[in-house]
């Protein structure tokens, strides 16, 4: 099947070859065939995340200083009292296309996709953005674009030391007894999928922290779904809502049915 479409780049006409149009039964059969491959991909992604949780860590021995809305802070301060820290290096500074009205278009698309950080915080994880722009410019940009994530100013060699001096990238750190460890790094195509709560948790050393995950012994894990909440409903130490436990039990049962999980 061919359909003529406007080519937005040159204003000319192009002919797009469309897939076959079939009956509902044939469409469902095609979907089921594709679903088999999608399930393989999902399980491979789970296995890769499990391997990522077993990666060795690198101790961060150097001291780094950032500028925040309330003054100078260290890398440990960026954790916000949590054990895990995800740092995205966004390009917003003099010399970047769009300055000073906008950050890099690609980095801005990443920022637009970031889910509400309360869900990450509930898993002992903090997400921050860092750039070389002054705090006044960052505050103005965040207000204009409606971004809520914490955003700090790089003042030293943090970006070059962690592979994000010339290009965007996401670093993951873990803190234990005031010691900091680098646990993971992703950039390029791997970085463009970031933004969702699950993608972020899957690159952390503790993962989603649900009991179905393949994690090393002793890692924190809680019953599947039970910790989920409205982003304005998380309270430290709260017992899972009884009604939500009932609803999520039904959902998990379906999740556990053979071949049900995508």
Please provide a brief summary of the model.
This protein is an alpha+beta fold and 262 residues long.
Observed structural traits:
single chain, 2 domains, two-stranded antiparallel ribbon, 262 residues, 9 helices, Glutaredoxin, globular
Describe the fold and architecture.
By secondary structure, this protein is α+β, with helices and mostly antiparallel strands. The chain folds into two domains: 58-207, 3-Layer(aba) Sandwich (Glutaredoxin); 223-262, no CATH class. It is 33% helix and 21% strand. It has nine helices and ten strands. It has helices spanning 24-52, 75-78, 105-113, 118-121, 135-145, 158-161, 188-191, 197-202, 242-256; strands spanning 2-6, 13-17, 58-59, 65-68, 71-74, 84-89, 125-131, 151-154, 169-176, 179-187. The strands form two sheets. Strands 3-10-9-6-7-8-4-5 form an eight-stranded mixed beta sheet. A two-stranded antiparallel ribbon has the order 1-2. A hairpin with a 6-residue loop joins strand 1 and strand 2.
- Which homologous superfamily in CATH is the superfamily of the largest domain? Glutaredoxin
Gross CATH architecture of the largest domain: 3-Layer(aba) Sandwich
CATH class of the largest domain: Alpha Beta
The percentage of residues in β strands lies in: 15-25%
Mean pLDDT: 93
Q: What is the count of distinct domains?
A: 2
Secondary structure: elements and pairs:
Layout: E1 2-6, E2 13-17, H1 24-52, E3 58-59, E4 65-68, E5 71-74, H2 75-78, E6 84-89, H3 105-113, H4 118-121, E7 125-131, H5 135-145, E8 151-154, H6 158-161, E9 169-176, E10 179-187, H7 188-191, H8 197-202, H9 242-256
Parallel strand pairs: 6-7, 7-8
Antiparallel strand pairs: 1-2, 3-10, 4-5, 4-8, 6-9, 9-10
């Amino acid at each position: 099947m061919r359909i003529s479409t406007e080519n937005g780049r040159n204003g000319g006409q192009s002919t797009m070859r469309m897939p076959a149009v079939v009956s509902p039964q044939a469409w469902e059969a095609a979907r089921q065939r594709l679903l088999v491959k999608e399930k393989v991909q999902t399980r491979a992604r789970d296995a890769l995340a499990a391997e990522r949780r077993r990666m060795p860590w690198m101790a961060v021995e150097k001291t780094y200083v950032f500028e925040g809305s309330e003054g100078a802070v260290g890398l440990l301060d960026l954790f916000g009292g949590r054990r895990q820290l995800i740092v995205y290096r966004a390009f917003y500074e003099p010399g970047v296309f769009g300055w000073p009205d906008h950050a890099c278009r690609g980095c801005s698309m990443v920022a637009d996709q970031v889910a509400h950080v309360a869900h990450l915080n509930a898993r002992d994880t903090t997400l921050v953005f860092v750039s070389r722009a002054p705090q006044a410019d960052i505050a103005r940009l965040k207000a204009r674009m409606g971004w809520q994530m914490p955003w700090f100013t790089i003042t030293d060699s943090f970006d070059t030391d962690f592979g994000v001096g010339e290009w965007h990238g996401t670093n993951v750190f873990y803190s234990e007894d005031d010691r900091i460890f680098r646990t993971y790094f992703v950039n390029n195509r791997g970085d463009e999928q970031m933004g969702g709560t699950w993608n972020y948790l899957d690159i952390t050393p503790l993962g989603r922290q649900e009991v179905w995950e393949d994690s090393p012994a002793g890692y924190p894990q809680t019953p599947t779904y039970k910790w989920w909440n409205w982003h304005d409903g998380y309270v430290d130490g709260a017992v899972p809502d009884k009604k939500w436990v009932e609803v999520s039990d039904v959902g998990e049962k379906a999740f556990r049915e053979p071949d049900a999980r995508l």
